[in-house]
Amino acid sequence: MSGQLKAELDNIYTVFHCPYYLYLDPVQYVHRFVGKQNIEIGGLLCSSLSYGRVEQIRNSIEKVLRITGTEIYDFSTAVPLREKMRLLSGIKHRFNTGTDIALLLECCAVATGHYGSLEALFVKGLKKSENTIKEALDKFVLSMRAVAAAILKNRPSGMYFFLPRPAAGSTCKRLNMFLRWMIREDDGIDCGAWKSISPSKLVMPVDTHVAALAKRLALTKRKSVDWRMAEEITATLKTVYPNDPVRCDFSLCRAGMVDFRNLWKAA
Fold first, then answer.
1. CA dist list (Å): 101 to 17, 34, 56, 156
2. What interhelical angle do 2-16 and 249-257 show, nearest 10?
3. Which candidate among 26, 142, 158, 267 keeps its CA 20 to 30 Å from the CA of 93?
């Protein structure tokens, strides 16, 4: 089975893992940023807004970037929170407002000011003995939520939507996607901005589309689209790509959006 699975995954990867398909993916915007701090803050912003229709995601990201510019680290650290809120007040992305986005950028500013980078904050919670980033991701989310709560002095629910917890069962699709962008090497798709975490620890970003395709490929037997499904899919993929289990994430997502069945069957 593993040989057949590898052949199927390799075919999907060969067809879809190429920059041509960036136009379908929010990572296209992350490639506009230069410098680690811009890339990681810009990446977290773009991944946080990556829910809903593709066109809606594009529009929201472009609206924000017209205000922040690509020097998003400078915007996050130099512009006071109240001014961020004013500048972003006209933006609404489904469940999130400009205030949520301003608070996310403020939390990034506080975190980078204290630790030097978002990577340093994340690595602080990572143990070498852990097989995946689950525990480190949960600690990262709790740290960012604590900053947000301290700033607003209450429960900033919109901000919490940006930062779900794996410990609560969420697939954390957008955060796992962000980590993929940061940790996998720069191959024209991912960005390779973080150097201190092995791609072998990454967890597959899973949403309903990826879950459906994963079931077709027998990557999971679970019915609930949750963190445990993401772990099960990752574990199956590790049997094929032990050092890089999320290697096919971009290509699987594209395969889920493009009618590739005839190409796949003909291979």
1. 30, 21, 16, 11
2. 70
3. 142
What does DSSP assign to residue 97? E
Residues 100-145: pLDDT tens digits?
Answer: 999 999 999 999 999 999 999 999 999 989 999 999 999 999 999 9
Q: Are 76 and 39 a contacting pair, CB within 8 Å?
A: no
3-class SS shares of the chain: helix, strand, coil, % to 5: 65, 0, 35
23 in the Ramachandran plot: left (φ > 0), alpha (ψ -120 to 50) or beta?
alpha
Instruction: Please provide the distance, in angstroms rounded to a whole number, between the alpha carbons at the two ends of the chain.
Output: 17
Q: Which amino acid is at 219?
A: L
Residue 262 clears pLDDT 70, i.e. is over it: no
User: What is residue 242's three-state secondary structure?
Assistant: coil
**In angstroms, what CA-CA distances link 192 with 35, 115, 202, 216?**
11, 19, 13, 30
Answer yes or no: is pLDDT of 153 > 70.
yes
Q: Cα 103 from chain centroid?
A: 18
pLDDT at 97: 95
At 254, give phi and psi (nearest 5°): -65, -40
Given a contact cutoff of 8 angstroms between Cβ atoms, the answer to whether 158 and 145 are in contact is no
- The reported pTM is 0.94
Domain ranges of the chain: 1-17+204-267, 26-192
In this prediction, residue 244 carries a pLDDT of 97
DSSP 106-138: HHHHHHHHHHSSHHHHHHHT--TT-SSSHHHHH
